[in-house]
Amino acid sequence: MLRHTRFDVDLDAVAHNLRQVKGMIGAPNDGPEDDDEAGRGASSARAAAPVRIAAVVKADAYGLGAVQVARVLLREGVDMLAVACLPEALKLRRAYPDAPVLVMGHTPDEYLPVAARERVTCSIFDLGQAEALSAAARSAGVRAVAHVKVDTGMNRLGLKPGLFEPGTGPGSAAELLCRMASLPSLELEGIFTHLALYDAASDAAQFAAFTRLVDEAASLGLRFALRHVCDSIGLMRYPAYRLDMVRPGAVLYGVTPLDTPLTDSADMITPFRLSTRISRLRRLEPGEGVGYDFSYRAPAGGALLATLPVGYADGYKRCLSNVAGVLVSGVRAPVVGLICMDQCTVDVSAVPGVAEGDEVVLLGGDRRGEPGSGVPVLEMASWAGTNRNDVICSIGRRVPRAYYEGGELVAESDYLMEGLT
Amino acid sequence: MLEGVFSHFADADDPGSDFSRLQLERFNEATAAIEAAGVRGFARHIANSSAYIRIPASRLDMGRVGIAVYGLGATGLGPDVPALAPAMALKARVTQVRTLPIGDSVGYGRTFVARRASRIGTLPLGYADGVTRGLSNRGWVGFPSGRAPIVGTVCMDQFMVDLTDLPDEGEGSTATLFGPGGPSAGELAELLGTIDYEIISSVSVRVPRIYLDSRLEEEEPC
Question: Within a 10 A sphere around the Cβ of A304, how many other Cβ atoms?
Fold first, then answer.
C-alpha cells in the first residue's frame, strides 16, 4: 500500500453477520438439514425448504469490495449473489465462474446477449425483454435464466400487477407472465418485488399484491422456484415475507435496521474501518484560521491541529466540515475547517501525547458494547444528514482496501494501482 | 536539488477578500529569503485556478490549474474571466416509464406522492454512482425537451423523475444529470450547499467514462 489512508475490511465479521442472518431465517449454517415453519407466509404453501439467500453485493459490496466479500459469502454457502447492473455481474462472473449472479436492475436489450452468454440471471418485467432474452439465449446456444421484477407500489422498476389497459397487453399481468414463460430458451426461475418500507400497512399491501399475482400465475399453471421480497430490513421486520429467498445486503456490512424488534437479537459486527495517519501537526495562535475561507478560527487559548490526508474525493463528505469527529488514541477529535478534496484538519488539542504519524479512525472500527471504540456509521450518517448505506458506499476508490481473515492480512485492492504492479 | 517552492491560497475565489494578496506577499518574502540564502533556480508556484485567472501577479513561475481545466469553478470572478466550457456531462437513459394515478407514491419511504396523474421515469443510477441523496425531491435533470424534477428518495442504484410535463420523453430518452443540457455542476452544488468540485469528484468508478475528441455539442447520446 502506498498511502496511509486505508479502508480495512474484516471478512470474518462479514461471515459472522451472514451466519447471524442464517440463524434468523433458520437456514442451515452447516449442511443441508434444517427446517423453518415461521419463515413462510405466502398463501401458496409448499413443502418446507430452507429459505435461500441472495447476498446483495451491489455497489461493489457497498464499497467494501465485491470480489473479496463474495468469496467469503460463497464459502459460507450463500445461494446467489445479487448486483445492480451487468458490469458488476461480469466482474463476479470472472472471479467465480459457477456462482449464480442476479442483476436486480434493468439490463437494456442490447446487452442481453452478453448476459445470456455469461450465464448472468437478468431481471425482466415486460414481454419485449423476455423475447429479446430468449432470442439472445437461443443464438448463444444456452438457456437464459431470469427473474421477473414486480412493481407492487415502489413505482421504481417492474411489472405492475393487475389488468392492462386495452391494447397494451395480453389482458392481465399473470397472463403476460405465462407468455414470457412459454418462450424458448428462457427459464423464469424467480419472481420478486421490493418493499418501500413506509409502514407495516403499506408493506403488507405490497406483499399482498405480490402474492396475488404469484397465486394468479399459479392458477394458470406457472410456478416460480424462487419468490423473494425481503431485503435486510424486510427479512428482520417481516419473518412471514421471507418466502423462498431473502436478499440481505446492508445487514451483512453491519448496518442493522432501526426500529425493528429482531435487531436487538442480532449480533452484527461492524466489518470495516476507515483510517489514516496524521501527516502534520501545527499550533494555531488564537484567532488564526484554518483551511479554505477560514471557516474555523482557533479559540482564545490557541489550538493544536492535525492535518489528515483524507478529503471529499475519498468520500469524506464535505458536509462533515466542522461537524464530524475522528478518533485519535481513543480520544474524539473534532473536524475543524472546511474539508478539502484531499485533506482535512482535526483539533487534537485534547489528545495527550499526540504525534505526527499517529493513527486516526474516521469511520467504523466500533465494537458492540464498547463505546468510544470507533466511529459508528450511524453517527456519521446523522452528521452527514444521510443514510448509513450512503456513508459506506461513498468511500472513494482512491482509498485502498485491505482484507483480513483470522486477523491476518489476506488481500489488498487498490483501484489506482490496478495493472501497475 | 530544490525544484520548486509553493504555497496555496485560502480564498482566491473570493474577489471581495484581500487575504490572497497578503499570502502572496508573505510567499514572495519567503522565496526571496531562500534566494538570498543562496538557493536558486527553483520554480515558485502559488496560484490555483481562481488566482491564476484573477490575480496575474500570482502566476509567478508556474500555475496549478485544476478546476478551470474541467471548465468549472471560475464563476463570479468578474467580467475579465474567460468563458470556460464544462468538460464533462453525466448522462443516463430512462429505463422504464409508468403512469401514476393521483395519490400513488414513489420510492423508499413514499416521500413523493402524486398530486396529479403523473408519468414517472426511472433512471439507472443512484447514490452509489455519486447522485447525492440530498437531491431527493429537490434536484432536476435535463432532457432535450425540458427539465424533469427528481421525485422520491434517491436510491443506491436508481432514482425517479417526473416526466408528466415532457410528453416527448420516454423509455430510452437521455437525461443529463449535470453538464451541458442539464443543470451545471455549480447549480447542483448550490442546491446541495457544497461546491462543484465535490459534485464532479463524487461520480463513482461504477459510471463508465466515455471520452470524446470533438466538442460536446457534437456528441452522440450516451
Answer: 17
